[in-house]
Each structure stands twice: as structure tokens, then as C-alpha cells.
Amino acid sequence: MFDHDDYTRPADAGDRWSRMAFAGLSRSGAMLLALAALVVFAVTCRSATPDDDAGDLAASTYVPVGEWDAYYAFLSGGQSGSVFVYGLPSGRFIRQIPVFEPRAAYGYANMPGTEAYERLAATGGFWGDTHHPILSETGGDYDGRFLWINDKANGRIARIELDTFETVEVKRIPNLYGTHGVAVVSPDTSYVIANGEFEGEIPRRDPEPEGYRSIMAFLDPISLDPRFEVLLPGNADINDTSKDGRWAFTTIYNLERGLTVEEMIQRDEDAIAAIDIHAAERALERGEYAEIGGVRVIDPEQTTEKLLYLIPVPKNPHGCDVDPTGTYVMGSGKLSPTVTVIEIAKIDQVESPRLAVVAEPEVGLGPLHTTFDGRGNAYTSLFVDSQIVKWNIAKAVAGDPEYIVDRVDVHYNVGHTQATLAETMHPTGEYLLSLNKLSKDMFLPVGPTMPENQELIDISGERMRLLSSFPSEPEPHDVVFMRAEDLIPHVIQTEELGPDAVADGESRIERVGPDEVHVYMTAIRSKYGLSSFTVKQGDRVTLRATNVETIRDMSHGLAIDSYGINIALDPGQTREVTFVADKPGTYWYYCTWFCSALHLEMRGRMLVEPR
Ligand code: RUQ
Ligand code: CUA
Ligand code: CA
Fold it and tell me: Measured from the CA of 318, which atom of ligand 1 is nearest?
């Protein structure tokens, strides 16, 4: 065994300095310290969960060979532009769902002329910065239909169908600068909301910072086109919604409307903005909007009815989380060691929005996100302290000083944290994932940049138990879970042969014009319908291929050597690509999925005759 301590840079001497210092500091001193630590990253020591035997911990994540995990975990793939699917509790990596990037194995956006390729090209290109996966809900519970995810880098959002785990829609959101927070409007996914985190002039024209605004877009969940948008002061960061379809919330960390870091941390308070969706819908009916970029845009300052409430939250808050009962929305303080608890029913009933704040428990340094177990406890990630802190909501609201239940060290600098089904009205309170921004020396070194680290924590008991850790590509911001038993019935086994399918025995080549040919091809173990076809140099070739297998998992591919083509085919699937056969000679096509003992023999020739 390697002693990996030999391979690490020396850890900072000030182990746990931040929390110890915090204990003896005033709140404003702690805030400054938090700010400094946000920049330099506090370093803590790795520590196992002390009371537990390693064997017990291993046993609680062990899933026997051939058996299935209890949960799907959908992690945002960060700058990969994908969604990563893991099984939990084992931490098995199951699938990468390509969203904003091409992936040849699944025939996703890997060739010009395919639907997915053209969609990405038209909306901003072949990479993304995905942050927040969200799941469709019916009646406040996950219905297993769709997953949406944002692309902060290109103002986009995408929809994935969970029956096939495929990305089926990608749209750029008009008028929006940097899609960041996304959420479904509970309980029935009446909208998908998306925040533009960056502010700017709307519509985009010559830069004039005085007029900068940001936007929350209310999208049609299927088409992803905005039904309307609402202008906001400052910037819109992370969002969530109430459980009754009425309220959309977002944190704003820059009410200063500053352009530099220094300017953005001037004030002691920023806000959670609450948008009354029903009031916004009534404003639309009264015509109280401007049409900008083809979208109905509401300015809350111009409506007859009040629809925007700004509730003060200290200081540059980040996470915005509604508890499973829909009673509270919580802003995690980031530069303040607090979580601000707002009672949703009070927002439009109190004289000043400040009076809707019913608790502001101190939880530790750098609180970023809060999640829930459905038993009245909240779990807040502490970026600076590198901890998950468990606290009791009712006690905090009642002013009982004993609201902290437990803390667990994580490795290191946690951003998002999410408990199983915590976004629904029925969390299972079983596991929590800590998505840590730094792994430092946790894994085998792979150069100066290390993988990110997820840690699985058992939250079923009073005390948290850190069970396991597993790495991932940068940067898995956030995660959502589905119970395996809830999703499995939705997952398609094989595609139905469609009307455009090439039937068994009907492979052929047709010349349809002087320089235009159509090729129809079947694939089945272990041969193609045509063992060769001949075209003329310069022909436009439309190649349609069908995988005529009826057995699950019997995928085939059809890649053409040196022509940049790979048609990946699920069982039953038909796909088509058009290309110009501009190079003369012999070009083997071959199967890219290892499908049988004669997989290597599953090949044929495209013969391109010189003109
Ligand atoms: S953010 S680490 Cu893009 Cu979700 Cu909070
Ligand atoms: Cu078909 Cu390999
Ligand atoms: Ca601020």
C-alpha cells in the first residue's frame, strides 16, 4: 500500500483554524474571516467517521454483484456538458448522458447533419457548463418523465427524456445572461424556471451598466420556450419554488449592482426575491408587459398588482431552498454564518418583508446550500468549514438555542449538498451526497488538477455517518435522486421499429439523381444488409440504417473509416446521415459496439469510384 501522505503537499498548519477562530469572533469578524477563507481555501485534515468500523461502513454501501442500487443519482457534469448517472449507495458510475457535448458511442451530435448536432451548433456550440439537474414532478413527487439541466456558459437549457436517458431538446433562452439556477414549479411542473445570473442591458445592445437587470424566465417545460420573463434587480442566482405553484424564489447576491468583487460585498444585506406567479399571470392578462426578443417581459415596477417581494438576507446569500412541507424558504448566507428562514405564508401578509424572516440560525462558516430529510431537519453545506451541519428547523424557529444536531467533516470545501428526494414533498431521509469542490489528496494523483469528490452520508439516524467517497470529473455542482423502483418502470427496453425503418431483407442502394444516392442498410448480429455498396466521387450519400435487433442492449454502430461517420443504433432504432463521398477509394465500414463473437467481422466496403 502507498502511504499517500508522502505524495501530498504539506497541509496547512492551521488545521481547523477557521472554526476555532470563528468560535471566538464577533459575527462581522467571522464574516470577514469567511471572506478571506473563501479566497484561500481552508485546509482540514481527513478524518474517518470515528465511531464506525470500516467493515460496517463498507457493508452499508455494498451492493452484491448483479444486484441493483436503490437510487439513481443524476449529477451535473459541470464543464463536461453532460449529466453523470451513478447508482447509490454503491457509487457505481452507470452512464454519461451527453447534453451539450458530442458523444460518438450514442451517436449524439457526433456528425453534422444529425438533429442533435445541428441543435447544439445553432444554440451555442459543443460544450456547456452544467450546474443544476432538476426532475419533473406530478403531485409534488417525481414522475420519472424528464430531467432538465442548465448551461451557464451559453444561456441554454436542455431536456432529457428518462425513458431513454437521451437529450431531446436544447434551447437558448432569449434575453438571459448565463443560465444559472433552474427549478420546476411544484407540485405539477407548471413551468420550468431559469435564472440569468449575470445582469445586463435588456435587450442586448450597447453596454450601459446603469440599466443592467437580470431575468427569471418561466419556460414551457416541453418546448423550453419562455411563456414570460420577469425583470429583477441585481442578479438572480439560485432558485426554488413553493409547493403550491404560487411562488418562485431566487437569491440575489448583488443588490449593490456592483461590477467588481469589492462592489458586490458593500452591503450587509442582499435578498431573496419572491415572485408571485399568479400575480404575474394576471399582469400578462392585463397586457402589462413589453415584448422583447419575442418574449413577454414583465417589469414588476410597472404592474398594477404587486408581484415582487424582496426579503433581506445577509450577505451575498447563495442557496435558495424550500423545505418539503412548503412552509419555509431558506437562504444560505455564504459570507454570513447563518441560514435565513422565511415563512412563505407571511410574505404578502406582513407590513415589511423583513417580518417574514422567522429565524436566522448560525450554522458555521460559508453556508452554501441546504437540504432536508423530511423529519424536520435541515442539512447545510459549509464551504469554508468543510462540513455538513444538521440542524432542527422547528427548534431554530422557536428560538431554542439547541438547534444544532450534528456535524460531519467532508473532504473538502463542499458546495451543493442534496438528500434523497429532498426536492419533493416526500423525502426519504436515507442518504445525503456532499459534492465537494476539492479532493486534495483523496485519490491517486493525476497531475496538478485532481478529481472532484462526492461523499455519501447516511442520514437515517440521529448522527450522520460518512459512508464512502467517490471521484468525478469536474465539476459536479448538484445532484438529484430518483428511487430506482420509481424510475425503472419508465425505462424503455427496445425501440419500436418506426415507419422509416429499413426492414430485414430490404437493404439496397438507389440512385435518385446524377450525384445523389440513397443507401438503406440493416444491422443485425453479425452482418450488415449490404456487404458493400458503390458510389461515385462527389455523390451526396444519404445513408439510413436500422438496427433490426429485438433484444435489449444489442446495439450496433456503423462507422465509416476516414469519413468521420458513426451511426450508433439502439435495438430497433433507425438513424440517417447525409455526407458527400468526396474521397475516392475503398472505405471499410464497421460495427462500433462489440455485439457478438463475430463483431470484428461485422464490416463492409464503401467503394467510391473516381469521377
Ligand atoms: S452553484 S455550489 Cu452553480 Cu449550484 Cu452552488
Ligand atoms: Cu454489431 Cu458489433
Ligand atoms: Ca452583496
Answer: 5
- Scanning the structure block, which residue is given the C-alpha cell 444489442? 554
Among 416, 329, 330, 421, which residue's Cα sits nearest to residue 375?
421
The reply to whether ligand 2 has any atom less than 6 angstroms from the CB of 556 is yes
Residues 136-149: b if buried by 16+ CB within 10 A, e if exposed: bbeebbbbbbbbbb
Confidence of residue 475 (pLDDT cuts 50, 70, 90): confident
pTM listed for this prediction:
0.91
Digit-coded pLDDT (tens) for 251-300 = 999 999 999 999 999 999 999 999 999 999 999 999 999 999 999 999 99
Q: Please report which ligand is nearest the Cα atom of 368.
A: 1
Q: How far is the CA of 590 from the centre of ligand 3 (A)?
A: 58
Q: Which DSSP letter does residue 11 get?
A: P
The neighbour count for residue 158, using CB atoms within 10 Å, is: 25
- Does the C-beta of 545 come closer than 6 Å to ligand 2? no
CA–CA separation, 591 and 397 (whole Å): 62
Residue 250, number of CB atoms within 10 A of its CB: 30
**How many whole angstroms separate alpha carbon 254 and alpha carbon 241?**
21
For 118-236, strand residue ranges (E) read 133-138, 141-151, 156-161, 166-172, 177-184, 192-198, 214-219, 226-232
61 CA from centroid of ligand 1 (Å):
27
Evaluate if residue 433 carries a pLDDT over 50.
yes
* Beta strand 92-98 pairing with 82-88: antiparallel
Rounded CA separation 565/575 (Å): 12
Residue whose CA is closest, atom 1 of ligand 2? 556
Chain position carrying cell 439547541: 402
Point out the ligand nearest to the CA of residue 524. Answer: 2
Dihedral over alpha carbons 75, 78, 83, 87 (to 10 degrees): -30
Cα distance between residue 276 and residue 311, in whole Å: 13
Residue 329 beta carbon below 6 angstroms from any ligand 2 atom: no
Cα–Cα distance for residue pair 331/328, rounded to 1 Å: 10
Q: How confident is the model at residue 51 (pLDDT cuts 50, 70, 90)?
A: low
Ligand 1 centre to CA of 237 (Å) is 9
Ligand nearest to the backbone CA of 183: 1
